[in-house]
Amino acid sequence: MSALKIKKGTSRHSAYDLRDPNSDVIETHTLAVVVDNEAGVLARVIGLFSGRGYNIESLTVAEIDHTGHRSRITVVTTGTPAVIEQIKAQLGRIVPVHEGHDLTVEG
């Protein structure tokens, strides 16, 4: 299932408006999730994106609490508002995720 509708022979980074007027607008969102800093957590989060065909524009991981062994994974992704909501809901169901924020909305 692809959220992007691209005309044949064009790229996503075209100077022309390629959006289908009958579909939702594709938006870029920055999502940050706080997770346990343990083996396999990054693979689970990234597996959510790759398994459903969601694109990752940018990815950053940094430890935020040395004593609590927690890290923040920041992902920039694109999709319709419905796809972004689905990604956020699915991220919240991954076991080692403690909290998630849509930095595009929350600032």
Automatic annotation (TrEMBL):
Keywords: Amino-acid biosynthesis, Branched-chain amino acid biosynthesis. Gene3D superfamilies: 3.30.70.260. InterPro entries: Acetalactate_synth_ssu, ACT-like_dom_sf, ACT_dom, AHAS_ACT, AHAS_small-like_ACT. It holds the Pfam family ACT_AHAS_ss. Coiled coil: none annotated. Residues 30-107 form the ACT domain. Transmembrane segments: none annotated. One of its GO terms (molecular function) is acetolactate synthase regulator activity. Pathway: Amino-acid biosynthesis; L-isoleucine biosynthesis; L-isoleucine from 2-oxobutanoate: step 1/4; Amino-acid biosynthesis; L-valine biosynthesis; L-valine from pyruvate: step 1/4. The keyword Phosphoprotein does not apply. SUPFAM superfamilies: ACT-like. One of its GO terms (biological process) is isoleucine biosynthetic process. GO terms for cellular component: cytosol. NCBIfam families: acolac_sm. PANTHER family: ACETOLACTATE SYNTHASE SMALL SUBUNIT, ACETOLACTATE SYNTHASE SMALL SUBUNIT 1, CHLOROPLASTIC. Belongs to the acetolactate synthase small subunit family. This is ACT domain-containing protein. It comes from marine sediment metagenome.
